[in-house]
Specification:
Elements (H helix, E strand, L loop, with lengths): L1 H12 L2 H5 L8 E2 H12 L2 E4 L7 E2 L11 H9 L4 E7 L2 E6 L7 H13 L4 H19 L1 H6 L7 E2 L3 E2 L3 E11 L2 E10 L5 E7 L10 H12 L3 E5 L8 H4 L8 H17 L5 E11 L1 H12 L5 E5 L11 H4 L12 H6 L6 E6 L11 H10 L7 E6 L8 H15 L39
Parallel strand pairs: 2-5, 10-11, 10-12, 12-13, 13-14, 14-15
Antiparallel strand pairs: 1-3, 4-5, 6-8, 7-8, 8-9, 9-11
Helix pairs in contact: 3-4, 8-15
Length: 445
């Protein structure tokens, strides 16, 4: 018997593959090997934004579906909180799970669910008021406002151009923390509409050429426009570093900055308080919707290439706080609908997360506006062949909306008349931060 046991033990030792196929170790295989096999089996290319080194998949073979590459990828990636994004019929990109991003199908289901919650103005307003209150709570904006500094903005000299002026400013909002921006104003006299323009994530921030073109052109046509740095971008990076932008605090501070800038701008004698707009693209569009929810002073809104039912923004400055938990689940489409019945324009395109706006988010928001007999007050400019930018056609949609809504002077619509300033000219603290106040927080990398 002893001899037979020794022989049996030797046989097991000689069969490592058999030893691995036991219940105890759950039929494990390296994740990288499984993904390589899936690529070969289904003849697809897998691109990696993830590191599979050292990752081992339990019950590996049982997760593969011979009839579906996508079901196989889903089963294999889910245990690691990974996901895939289909780029074309033969290419899939593997990525980490992104909390603000879902699928088009998810967006359609969410809109259908939201539509089921209210059937008339009364039921809608009960939901709207509850959601708006919870957004403020999840954002913690009232706590931030309670800590706000009672400060006045500091202005630069005014620079004069063809039909408009530009003036930089900085404003202390929290102790030692400043927001920097620029004011574009018409050279004409009288009361003018005001448009707050939160910045998005396009290259060079508020110094971006398209940003300058848009604000200056709107100013030439008769609107006062204000843009300001994202938290951790531009001159804000001198205070909190670029890494500051990748925190949930960015969403709170940017909202606080938007409120604070509107506070001092709306007191100007040349501002018409009945015509106050908000307009931004990408992350600036997300901010535009949020500001329209938490600040009742806006009378028109135009979020550009941002509003979606299945994407809340890929940055903590858009989705770092849990505001989408409001009402047991919401999205920017419902938050924008809360602007009804005031004029709202959605600018969307065919190559980002706004691709289904004309068939999904827009009809939903229009239905809500219909509760107020104001369906004509919400519009959608969709550019199916364009992608995620703030290009000429997006800017034209913005111009058209504010010309119609605020009565701007279309005859002054000429971007060639705009002077694109250097980055240094737009810096409120000076080219090297030399004008930062003594009490300003300073980033020490």
């Amino acid at each position: 018997m002893k001899t037979r046991s020794i022989i049996f033990g030797a046989m097991l030792a000689a069969l490592p593959a058999l030893a691995q196929n036991t219940f105890e170790n759950q039929f494990r295989r390296p994740l990288g090997d499984v993904l390589t096999e899936i690529g070969e089996r289904f003849q697809v290319k897998l691109k990696y934004d993830i590191d599979t080194t050292g990752l081992v998949l339990p019950y590996a073979d049982s997760r593969i579906r011979p009839y579906s590459v996508e079901e196989s990828l889903t089963n294999v990636l889910v245990p690691f909180d990974f996901k895939f994004v289909k780029q074309n019929d033969k290419t899939y990109k593997l990525k980490r799970y992104e909390y603000p991003r879902r699928t088009e199908a998810d967006g359609r289901k969410l809109i259908a669910w939201l539509n089921s919650l209210y059937s008339d103005k009364g039921s809608w307003e009960l939901r709207r008021d509850s959601v708006k209150r919870q957004v403020r709570e999840y954002l913690t904006i009232d706590d931030a406002l309670a800590q706000r500094v009672d400060a006045k903005p500091v202005f630069s000299k005014i620079r004069k151009f063809d039909g408009y002026t530009v003036q930089n400013f900085y404003l202390e909002t929290l102790p030692g923390l400043y927001v920097c921006g620029s004011i574009y104003a018409p050279t004409t006299k009288g009361k003018h509409p005001l448009i707050i323009c939160p910045n998005g994530h396009f290259g060079n921030g508020r110094y971006n050429e398209a940003q300058q073109q848009r604000l200056a052109t709107l100013a030439r046509m008769g609107a006062i426009c204000v843009d300001y740095d994202l938290y951790g971008w531009g001159e804000s990076a001198l205070q909190v570093g670029s890494e500051g932008h990748q925190t949930s605090k960015a969403q709170v501070v940017q909202a606080l900055n938007g409120i604070s800038i509107l506070d001092f701008m709306i007191e100007r004698k040349d501002v018409d308080t009945e015509r106050v707009g908000v307009n931004g693209g990408s992350g600036g569009g997300s901010q535009s919707v949020l500001l329209s929810v938490i600040d009742p002073r806006y009378t028109a809104a135009c979020p550009v290439v941002s509003l979606s039912s299945y994407f809340d923004g890929g940055c903590p400055c858009e989705s770092g706080m849990a505001i989408m938990r409001a009402g047991d689940g919401t999205c920017n489409a419902e938050l924008a609908a809360a602007f009804a019945p005031r004029p709202l324009c959605l600018v969307s395109d065919g190559k980002d997360w706004t691709n289904i706006t004309p068939e999904n988010e827009y009809p939903y928001i229009k239905r809500i506006y219909g509760f107020y007999d104001a369906a004509d007050k919400v519009t959608n400019v969709h550019l199916p062949n364009e992608g995620h930018d703030f290009g000429p056609n997006k800017r034209q949609a913005v111009y058209d909306f504010f010309i119609e809504t605020f009565g701007l002077d279309r005859s002054k619509l000429d971007e060639s008349k705009v002077t694109i300033e250097s980055h240094d000219a737009l810096k409120s603290f000076g080219p090297n931060g030399e004008n930062m106040p003594a009490n300003a927080i300073r980033h020490n990398p």
